[in-house]
Specification:
180 residues; alpha+beta; four-stranded mixed beta sheet; three-stranded antiparallel beta sheet; 3 helices; 20% helix
């Protein structure tokens, strides 16, 4: 492996969710400039109903200019917020379903979502023994909740119709771990 040295990192843009930097590197003695997106992290939840169906949310994603089917998820409020707490909050906010406490969430997997240019890391949990409450959506959120059979979700993944990376990884990990 060659030598890579970061000479400088300069902030190019700061948004509500990410910071974008220009990294100035020396790669085997040659100068390069790479973009780097800093993200504080996020959490997602696989909500499992008593009947075994999985709850997913359908919401508009501006970057794609379309609606997506995905797990309930959200970014941490601060870099120091435990992702389990974030998952607990986002489950109820987005679906209206909740568990008794954050400790009831079972850790499933951790994923890096954009390794080529950013550091977003998402912890994914499983939620069972759900009780129905109310959604608490942000003013700019429009989220529909849908119940899905595991086999139908897997079929959507392999047909290329369910493409959200955290959801694909979580559904396949859940199916593999529990043999459902």
């Amino acid at each position: 492996m060659g030598e890579i040295v970061r000479e400088k990192r300069e902030l190019a843009y700061e948004g509500a969710i990410v910071k974008v930097y220009k990294d100035h590197l020396l790669i085997d003695g040659k100068k390069a400039v790479w973009d780097y997106i800093q993200h504080n992290g996020a959490a997602a939840v696989v909500p499992v109903l008593e009947n075994g169906k999985i709850l997913l949310v359908r919401q508009y994603r501006n970057a794609l200019d379309r609606y997506t089917l995905e797990l309930p998820a959200g970014k941490v409020d601060s870099k120091d917020e435990p992702r389990r707490i974030c998952a607990f909050r986002e489950l109820e906010e987005e679906t209206g379903y909740k568990v008794g406490s954050p400790e009831e969430l079972e850790f499933l997997i951790r994923i890096d979502t954009m390794v080529a240019f950013g550091d977003e890391e998402i912890d994914i949990f499983v939620a069972r023994n759900l009780s129905k409450g109310e959604q608490h959506l942000d003013e700019d959120e429009r989220i529909d909740i849908e119940e899905w059979e595991m086999d139908d979700l897997v079929e959507l993944i392999y047909k290329g119709e369910l493409k959200d990376s955290k959801t694909v990884a979580a559904i396949l990990a859940y199916k593999n771990k529990y043999g459902v």
